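> example.struct
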């Protein structure tokens, strides 16, 4: 249930407190769905990368961050003006956080030849609570559009900013009209009926403890025309928050995974020849506070596995259409905002990233030849709460950069991927005698158990400088060249 005291907080914040009283009041943040409230306290590791495996290409601090204090509900990385450089789309929400936030327009940071502008030159004319943004060519004119999944306590309609030659319009050109209105937590643009245009599905809730539930809605696109009234809805009314399409049963039609909040089970809605079923074909069996779903073939067996954000983060391994939990995170705390798969180190295996609202931490779990690290391989401890994640090649070097959204200031941060130097086996930015020792250890092959003097499989992959699947004298010769640079 939405805490009733957060509404009382809004009255306190507007009650004309003295400067001393305001200064003494704690910093309080509320999530975009109104279901998580935290008091932000200083942390000894705030703003620091506290764990960094050599195979994770991100550094110890953001390479770019904006200057605004806002609440980020969603992020996307996409080329919005056709110049060949991916831009950052930011959806912002409003809540009963304290001190109050002054603005919550949606934003677009254009990328000028690999460098992001410091101040957004695109700002939406409307200002409503946005829980998510998605990008795709909805109307089929060749230009990417922005779908803004809106809601908040006002249950503002979702909108579309239609794209054009120089970028999207700052004013909406389409608004949803859900029956009884809805608080859209998330949206996904996907051609689930395979007719060549993007359909839209939203995850939803109500706006109070007296009206908490809504069905999922789908707006089925008809040749570029998206209806304003949903053409499909789930049989169950509940609290949903994230969506992901993936063909989990191998029939050629992508099915819809949905994470749901307390008292409801995360599930999969089967897609039969382009028609979503209204009841789930599979449920998790757990009514915990799930937030986040993502598909990827983690183990390389040809079947999509399902990651679910919960306490702890779980991976359901897929064996020919049968799902079972085979991995859970060993991190110390969980309070999910979002999770995504991305092959961050370009080794051909999808890695798992997650961001937490309650402690602001971003975790990356490396995938080592089909097995995710149990404990995080890389952790960034944001001084503000974490709200969103995105990946994209911002600087054009062919490596995926990490974009992090926060509620607070700054609210958007970018970690640029730093490709490892040839021969830098431990990822410390130098090629030295430590790396030579690691290379010599790897000449006997990788050791999964990595005893003292052994060779971790990830180090083995980096030591294989000529990419011939072994570490031998030729790799030693190539290492010498790298050492002398």
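> example.seq
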């Amino acid at each position: 249930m939405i805490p009733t005291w957060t509404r009382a907080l809004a009255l306190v914040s507007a009650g004309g407190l003295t400067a001393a009283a305001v200064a003494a009041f704690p910093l309080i943040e509320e999530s975009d769905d109104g279901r998580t409230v935290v008091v932000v306290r200083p942390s000894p590791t705030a703003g620091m990368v506290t764990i960094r495996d050599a195979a994770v290409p991100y550094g110890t601090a953001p390479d770019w961050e904006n200057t605004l204090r806002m609440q980020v509900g969603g992020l996307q990385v996409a080329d919005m003006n056709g110049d060949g450089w991916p831009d950052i789309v930011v959806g912002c929400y409003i809540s009963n956080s304290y001190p109050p936030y002054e603005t919550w327009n949606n934003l677009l940071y254009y990328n000028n030849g690999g460098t992001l502008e410091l101040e957004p030159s695109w700002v939406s004319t409307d200002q409503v609570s946005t829980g998510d943004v998605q990008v795709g060519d909805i109307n089929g004119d060749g230009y990417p559009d922005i779908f803004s999944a809106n809601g908040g306590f006002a249950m503002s309609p979702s909108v579309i900013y239609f794209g054009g030659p120089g970028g999207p319009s700052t004013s909406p050109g389409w608004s949803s009209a859900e029956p009884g209105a809805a608080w859209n937590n998330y949206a996904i643009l996907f051609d689930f009926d395979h007719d060549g245009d993007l359909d839209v599905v939203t995850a939803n809730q109500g706006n109070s403890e007296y009206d908490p539930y809504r069905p999922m809605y789908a707006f089925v696109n008809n040749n570029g025309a998206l209806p304003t009234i949903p053409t499909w809805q789930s049989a169950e009314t509940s609290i949903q928050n994230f969506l992901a399409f993936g063909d989990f049963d191998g029939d050629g039609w992508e099915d819809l995974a949905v994470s749901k909040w307390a008292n409801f089970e995360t599930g999969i809605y089967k897609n039969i020849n382009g028609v979503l079923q209204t009841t789930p074909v599979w449920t998790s069996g757990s009514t915990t506070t799930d937030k986040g779903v993502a598909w990827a073939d983690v183990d390389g067996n040809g079947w999509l596995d399902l990651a679910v954000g919960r306490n702890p983060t779980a991976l359901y391994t897929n064996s020919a259409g049968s799902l079972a939990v085979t991995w859970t995170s060993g991190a110390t705390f969980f309070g999910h905002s979002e999770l995504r798969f991305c092959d961050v180190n370009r080794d051909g295996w999808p890695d798992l990233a997650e961001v937490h609202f309650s402690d602001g931490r971003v975790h990356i779990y490396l995938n080592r030849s089909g097995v995710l690290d149990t404990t995080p391989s890389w952790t960034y401890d944001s001084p503000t709460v974490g709200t969103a994640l995105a990946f994209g090649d911002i600087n054009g070097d062919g490596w995926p950069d990490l974009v992090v959204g926060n509620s607070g200031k700054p609210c958007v941060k970018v970690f640029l991927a730093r490709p490892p130097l040839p021969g830098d086996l431990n990822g410390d930015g130098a090629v030295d005698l430590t790396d030579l020792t690691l290379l010599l250890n790897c000449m006997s092959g990788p050791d999964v158990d990595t005893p003292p003097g052994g060779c971790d499989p990830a180090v083995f992959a980096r030591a294989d400088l000529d990419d011939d699947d072994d570490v031998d004298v030729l790799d030693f010769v190539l290492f010498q060249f790298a050492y002398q640079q």
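> remarks
The helical segments are 5-13, 19-24, 433-441, 457-463, 473-484.
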